[in-house]
Design brief:
four-stranded antiparallel β-sheet, 12 strands, about 240 residues, mainly beta, two-stranded antiparallel ribbon, single chain, globular
């Protein structure tokens, strides 16, 4: 896994079985630089947004929106962070965090032993994560929520006792330059939509990955797009 151009990122590992090509600058930005991106659906070009944008919401899901209205843009509801979160065997894991409603913790008090440890001491923002229901995808309940790890409901907490279990995703770069998300607690499922309908305001669910591998299918793939690339046609990777 490497860029086609021999750059400083020649040994880039992005968790997928394909090489990163010149179209994938947003994938690099999301997975390596931890920059927020839009997750644009491969089928109809709609983007993912939390159903509720405020920081107080921890029990609402995710939906596919088509118009980028000013309120969503102002609240950064169209932007997501794909944040590194360890490894599953040899595969890197990530959490999907919304840029909307993030909370900046108060700076550590002077003399605090934790201040400055490992970095400049500035507390990292607390972001609401996409969390999967333990019984997904067979449950009829809302199988995806956006909330802080300690504030989502009990059935969205870690299956093995760790709050993070239900928030870890295997992120795979597909051969056509998109991303497929596989929850670690449900390796036979991928991020999809209620009733398999990919329409405006569709509710995000988990759907069975009938392909049986981590590449998923094109209609359950999302193209990461930097905010400045919103006007770039999402299908340009095919040309």
């Amino acid at each position: 896994m490497y860029t086609q151009e021999r750059t400083a990122m020649s040994n880039l590992v992005v968790g997928g079985p394909v090489a990163v090509n010149s179209y994938d600058n947003a994938i690099v930005a999301a997975l390596v630089e931890n920059r927020p991106v839009m997750l644009v659906h491969a089928f109809n070009g709609g983007y993912l947004r939390p159903a509720e944008l405020s920081e107080e919401s921890h029990d609402k899901g995710v939906q596919l929106a088509t118009p980028l209205d000013p309120a969503t843009k102002e609240a950064k509801g169209h932007l997501w962070y794909v944040t590194p979160a360890g490894f599953f065997g040899q595969r890197p894991l990530y959490v999907i965090e919304s840029a909307a409603g993030q909370v900046t913790p108060k700076p550590a008090a002077a003399g605090d032993a934790a201040a400055g440890r490992g970095d400049d001491g500035t507390p990292k923002p607390q972001r609401r994560r996409v969390t999967v229901h333990q019984d997904a995808p067979r449950s009829t309940a809302d199988t995806v929520q956006v909330g802080l790890p300690d504030k989502v409901g009990d059935k969205w907490r870690g299956k093995n006792g760790a709050p993070e279990d239900t928030q870890l995703w295997i992120v795979t770069v597909t051969p056509w330059g998109g991303l497929t998300f596989v929850p670690i607690t449900h390796p036979d499922a991928i991020l999809g939509f209620k009733d398999h309908a990919v329409a405006a305001n569709s509710e995000v669910r988990l759907t069975y990955n009938w392909g049986g591998d981590f590449t998923g299918t094109v209609i359950n793939t999302f193209y990461p797009r930097l905010p400045s690339e919103w006007n770039v046609p999402y299908h340009h990777v095919f040309t």
